[in-house]
Amino acid sequence: MTNILTFCTASAxxxxxxxxxxLAAGRQLGDKLGNxxxxxxxxxxxxxxxxxxxxxxxxxxxxxxxxxxxxxxxxDVILGTLQTVVQQLGPDVVxxxxxxxxxxxxxxxxxxxxxxxxxxxxxGFEIKGDTIRWLRPVYGGKAMAYMVASGP
Length: 152
Prior knowledge:
Layout: E1 2-9, H1 17-33, E2 36-43, H2 51-56, E3 61-65, H3 75-89, E4 93-95, H4 102-114, E5 124-128, E6 131-138, E7 143-147
Parallel strand pairs: 1-2, 1-4, 2-3
Antiparallel strand pairs: 5-6, 6-7
């Protein structure tokens, strides 16, 4: 079974559209793999109520990290929290939404801390044998290329 962890930040008032989009991508990947379990790491202050929404939109499991220090979406606090979640759950794939906090800051730093590969700015994927190939724009968006992330 392939475990897919999606990273979702939220506030008590709002579950951003990006959280649902990354969860949908995780569900699509899990379904294409045929045995994928989709987990959501929901991080933010007072976000527990959004757990049911994530399950309704395709998460098999939701793990909530809620604390007042997460109010300001500080990258270092979120990075430490997510690193703990990833180390405890041991997912095969971690998906981040494309925003300044997640994909542009936390994702690359988490990959470095874990000593694993990362492919950013993905717009799709395909499965070739046992390998997930990630589709992303290259050459300033003039072409598309498949990339493979490697790591331990």
